[in-house]
Amino acid sequence: MPEFSKHPIRKAFRRRSIPERKEEVKQHVAEQLTEIYENDDGSMPDMKHIEKRQHRRARRAFVVLLLSCAFFALVAWVGFFVFPSSGGFEEDKVILSISGPESLRPSEEARYRIRYRNDQPATLENAIVQVRYPEGFVFSTSSPVAHGIAGDEWSLGTIEADESGFIDIIGRFYGDVGSSQSFRVFLSYTPQNFSSEFQTVATASIGIVPPFFDLSLQGPSEIVSGAGGELTIAFAPKNEVVFEYIAIDLIPGSSFIPTSPVRWLFDSINSEQKITVAGVFAQNTSSTDPGDVKVVVRGWKEKLRSGDGYIYGEATYHANIIETALHVAMIVNGTTGNMPVQPGDILNVSVVVKNDGDTPVDRVGVRAVFEAPSTERQSILDWKAIDDSADGDISGEQVNEETRRGTIFWDARHIGDLKRLDPGEEVAIDFHLPIKDTKDTDLSGFTTTDIIANAEIEAGVGAEREVLTSIPLRLTVVSDVSFAAEATVDQLDDGREVHVLSWVIKNSFHELSDIVVETEVYGDVSVNTTTIKAPAGVVEYDTLAKKLRWTIPQMPTVVDILAIDIPIVVNKKNPTQTQLTSQMQFLATDVITGEKILKAQDGVALE
After folding, report:
1. What pLDDT, on the 0 to 100 scale, is given for residue 606?
2. Structural domain of residue 21, as residue ranges?
3. The domain that contains 201 carries what CATH number?
4. What is the pLDDT of residue 388?
């Protein structure tokens, strides 16, 4: 390149316009021809008096041919070096690459370098580098400084011939272990003397490898189905690594029913953590699901922990569960599953004990255990109002400031059949336990919402005794909201009937949101919603679908009642019509528990 730039012709034409360059080429060629044809004294020969000699025609033709070749060679040479313009640009000589670690651990900081080079004489103008970061990449800084908040664009301006440079990017990676993410880098530019834009692309893949920690999940090597037990989770960072915004989740599977929390959140962990989880082991009956218990470590980019997070690691425990001949189950309000309950509800409980073995079992003892919300050492369950025909022994224990445990115990003293349980024999114990409402206590004092209930059986042959536990039930105490509807009938001056539909909502425990009350109206009727004064929300009537709806965004606990009257005018009575409205439905969300509350009431009948 240096020798080329020093060439006399290149130097002469460097700063002239294209027409000027062409004129100079013509002049230069003319000077060359003059030197060839002029006489020794510098004068030009008189072409009119030149003798024509036959034997010199071939020589003249040969000379003309040589001169023509020389002329065109000179023009081509000048055109190549003086006017390279578009012919000098080669796209494959615009080089772009990105380099850095090919594998990273979650939350690990890394530096990546973007290199660019213009390996040709043509200048590149309006050059811009843009990066599409992987989903799990968090940008920290760059050199040179990027434009914009995202830190993903750099304006390079002009890249001269043979010029090169680089951009360093620093950030942290987050992702599921075993997954792969990739950078995409774009260099956009316009070659000199071109009007269109070109783009060069480079990519780099990064694999997410296991982070520096040990994780284990341990439990009994062998346990009887229905027996209570504990699992131990151990999480230990290594190499002095600090983990931020971590969650440890227990996924019970079908063989373990936890009676304690299954998620633990940590803003920062730098030392070993051991977590004990209590629960009941149950025989897995699925042929496709092994019923294994898992513990999963998840991480997030930020403290808010939005989304499901990234899986950093997991451990598995397989329970070797031995089936037993004795079985115990608890049924509450007709179900053995989790369910919402309300203040004022009555828990109708059945504890069922059965001997499926071939051997009689003596000295059977049965317990029903309830861990419930507590305030001032008083349970939300009304133990004083219990209805137990067997009159079991009741005891109470304060677990912590927010939870109180209540237990009922029965044995042969209370139920004679528990003295000996023969093969195939079954005993059911029924009782009724109310939940307190606003008449009994100040509900605002309860800060927790779950009642954990289960039954235990203590039995054995002779001196051998064992304790088995039923699958625990989670009863979530939701808002005490009530919904009532009634209608009164009046008559307008024109003789038409008007039915005034009254809807009343009462609530004092837990804020409600997304409240919807609706019904369908039958017959030839008119509903004028503009005359309705709603205390909250909006009342709408769809004349085509004949749907009447009252929607309320929020109902805080400071508002204990909302009531509305809706006039429905019957334009023409149908003698065969018996109902004015369909069943009325009330739907709301308990803001504290997130539970949906659904209530229904019979529609308005026509007399």
Report:
1. 85
2. 2-45+57-83
3. 2.60.40.1530
4. 96
